[in-house]
């Protein structure tokens, strides 16, 4: 081994063997505040708490359809603040603060690394001790240099700091507010039931026809507790009867109830195979004829007799046939349509004959309606009076009906009901001066509906509209079904025996804005944060195993001056500064000289080649641990 001309005197190279004084025994070695065990453990505790919180919120979010209900805005100091700023900025703010905390730990770990190398018994090379300063490097350069030098804890800590720069904006998407549907059971009551027998001969069909015309032709709303297919047994909620507001954000109510319905299976008959129109008698002043339409529809014989005259242009003959067999579905509603024509043999042209079989159904199912507001029904507190009559002011909107079992035939729920109901449809006839046809009130409603369905349609020789058989069949079904539903929802809805109530439960649905945890964001955040905590544990372990022999923070020039007292570095710096052509850059000159000539030939040639260490004791100094042999 050769000794550099600038080495310390011999007695300085043995400071490590100096006896410790009383004061040095009491002095504690210094460690940066962020690297102290309690500080790193606090960081790890905060990180674990965050991971647990995210996992718990994720589980709650998945199990409870969101973990908390939130509003859309918050008013404060006369201003409206969007609450979405809270659940986007708060997670980002938390991770930003935690990232700053980690930045302090990572900086402390990189700042102490040169002193860790100096504190080894045999010291360390200059590039890892006296020439090392990670503070002067940007994060990517520091990362590359740390792993190149084998300083894994510094490199990992730096990489974790870069990860935190990604975590903060990623955490802004951790929570998302979404509309969610919640359900709860609420008590309801039934105080009325359906009875077909109430739709008897005393029922005024004209009232039903007026209601049907208003709905189908003039766009009036449906009868309460009906849609275009069913009449539903009404029910009432406890809060509705009590006149108190429904739960906030309640959107719909679903309950098991009974639906009544009637369907027509109409066939447009073909002349010849299905029916014939014959002239029974004919007159000349005015030109007229007594006609008979006879035919067969799916096993049921049908017949109509009517008179046509040149005094009336459009005819729509309506009647019922109630002697069909059970196999032929008991009855037929028969309709003959045509225009008077003097040139046609039966004095009738543009003829259509429609025959309809009737089916009555009762279906149990789940009815979904809108939630009525408090006091909207106008009922008495027990809800009995108006609920029974079906004329209550409250009108929930029908949202949907889902059958829970097969519908059953309700034709004979009241014996002979269908004969009375269907027969009454053809018994009212009124003359209206502004119409061009002759028919019953039932037929008038059908023709208005058919004109509405067909629009302009074709024209006859007298410029009246010609209605097709298919349009008539569809219109007949529309009008008949709605007549039945309106009748069942009014006359057919009666109080239960003795005015008793039937209690049940319904499912109340509430539309709430709920805060959800985004699973993939939560998984990414938890995984990255877990890796960072593992790095924090390794940094803490390294800090405890590798001391620095420092008794104060090397902050400020005075602290460094104490470490450099009688140090070889002082002589090196002096020699470099006094060298010829010095350009003001000490470190750059030393690195440049290390590549030139033999050892000691250049002013800074010794620094890079030698190993450097720090003496032990209360007065640590940076000295040459070992020189390089040439």
UniProtKB/TrEMBL annotation:
<feature type="transmembrane region" description="Helical">
    <location>
        <begin position="37"/>
        <end position="62"/>
    </location>
</feature>
<keyword id="KW-0472">Membrane</keyword>
<feature type="transmembrane region" description="Helical">
    <location>
        <begin position="517"/>
        <end position="540"/>
    </location>
</feature>
<feature type="region of interest" description="Disordered">
    <location>
        <begin position="369"/>
        <end position="409"/>
    </location>
</feature>
<keyword id="KW-1133">Transmembrane helix</keyword>
<dbReference type="InterPro" id="IPR021840">
    <property type="entry name" value="DUF3433"/>
</dbReference>
<keyword id="KW-0812">Transmembrane</keyword>
<feature type="region of interest" description="Disordered">
    <location>
        <begin position="1"/>
        <end position="21"/>
    </location>
</feature>
<feature type="compositionally biased region" description="Polar residues">
    <location>
        <begin position="369"/>
        <end position="379"/>
    </location>
</feature>
<dbReference type="Pfam" id="PF11915">
    <property type="entry name" value="DUF3433"/>
</dbReference>
<protein>
    <submittedName>
        <fullName>Uncharacterized protein</fullName>
    </submittedName>
</protein>
<feature type="transmembrane region" description="Helical">
    <location>
        <begin position="83"/>
        <end position="104"/>
    </location>
</feature>
């Amino acid at each position: 081994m050769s000794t550099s001309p600038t080495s310390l005197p011999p007695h300085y190279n043995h400071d490590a063997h100096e006896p410790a004084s009383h004061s040095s025994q009491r002095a504690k070695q210094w460690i940066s505040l962020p690297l102290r065990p309690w500080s790193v453990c606090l960081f790890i505790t905060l990180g674990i708490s965050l991971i647990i919180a995210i996992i718990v919120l994720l589980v709650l979010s998945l199990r409870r359809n969101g973990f908390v209900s939130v509003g859309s805005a918050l008013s404060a100091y006369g201003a409206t603040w969007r609450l979405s700023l809270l659940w986007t900025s708060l997670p980002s703010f938390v991770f930003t603060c935690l990232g700053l905390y980690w930045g302090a730990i990572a900086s402390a770990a990189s700042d102490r690394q040169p002193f860790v190398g100096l504190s080894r018994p045999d010291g360390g090379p200059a590039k890892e001790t006296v020439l090392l300063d990670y503070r002067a490097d940007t994060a990517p350069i520091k990362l590359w240099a740390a792993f190149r030098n084998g300083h894994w804890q510094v490199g990992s800590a730096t990489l974790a700091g870069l990860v935190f720069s990604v975590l903060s904006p990623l955490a802004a998407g951790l929570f998302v507010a979404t509309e969610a549907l919640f359900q709860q059971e609420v008590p309801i009551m039934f105080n009325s039931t359906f009875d077909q027998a109430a739709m008897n001969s005393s029922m005024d069909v004209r009232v039903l026809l007026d209601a049907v015309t208003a709905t189908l032709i003039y766009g009036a709303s449906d009868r309460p507790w009906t849609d275009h297919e069913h009449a539903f047994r009404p029910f009432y909620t406890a809060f509705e009867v009590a006149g108190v507001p429904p739960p906030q954000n309640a959107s719909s109510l679903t309950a098991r109830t009974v639906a009544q319905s009637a369907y027509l299976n109409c066939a447009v008959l073909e002349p010849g195979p299905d029916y014939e129109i014959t002239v029974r008698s004919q007159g000349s002043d005015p030109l007229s004829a007594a006609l008979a339409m006879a035919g067969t529809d799916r096993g049921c014989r049908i017949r109509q007799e009517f008179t046509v005259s040149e005094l009336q242009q459009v005819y729509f003959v309506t009647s019922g046939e109630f002697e069909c067999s059970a196999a032929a579905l008991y009855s037929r509603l028969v309709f003959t349509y045509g225009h008077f024509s003097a040139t046609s043999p039966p004095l009738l042209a543009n003829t259509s004959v429609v025959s309809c079989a009737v089916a009555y159904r009762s279906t149990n199912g789940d009815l979904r309606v809108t939630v009525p507001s408090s006091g909207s029904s106008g009922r008495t507190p027990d809800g009995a009076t108006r609920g029974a009559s079906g004329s209550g002011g409250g009108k929930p909107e029908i949202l949907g009906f889902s059958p829970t079992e097969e519908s059953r035939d309700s034709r004979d729920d009241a014996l002979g009901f269908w004969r009375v109901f269907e027969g009454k449809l053809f018994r009212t006839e009124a003359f209206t001066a502004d119409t061009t046809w002759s028919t019953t009130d039932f037929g008038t409603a059908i023709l208005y509906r058919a004109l509405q369905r067909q629009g302009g349609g074709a024209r006859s020789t007298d410029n009246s509209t010609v209605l097709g058989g298919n349009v008539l069949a569809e219109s007949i079904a529309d009008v008949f079904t709605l007549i039945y539903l309106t009748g069942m929802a009014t006359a057919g809805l009666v109080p239960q025996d003795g005015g008793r109530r039937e209690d049940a439960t319904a499912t109340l649905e509430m539309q709430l804005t709920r805060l959800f945890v985004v699973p993939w964001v939560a998984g990414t955040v938890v995984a990255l944060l877990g890796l960072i905590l593992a790095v924090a544990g390794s940094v803490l372990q390294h800090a405890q195993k590798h001391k620095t022999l420092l008794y104060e923070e090397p902050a400020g020039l005075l602290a460094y001056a104490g470490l450099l007292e009688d140090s070889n570095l002082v002589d090196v710096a002096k020699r470099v500064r006094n060298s010829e052509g010095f350009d003001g850059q000490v470190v750059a000159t030393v690195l440049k000289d290390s590549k030139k000539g033999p050892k000691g030939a250049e002013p800074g040639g010794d620094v890079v080649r030698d190993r450097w260490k720090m003496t032990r004791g209360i007065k640590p100094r940076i000295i040459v641990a070992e020189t390089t042999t040439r």
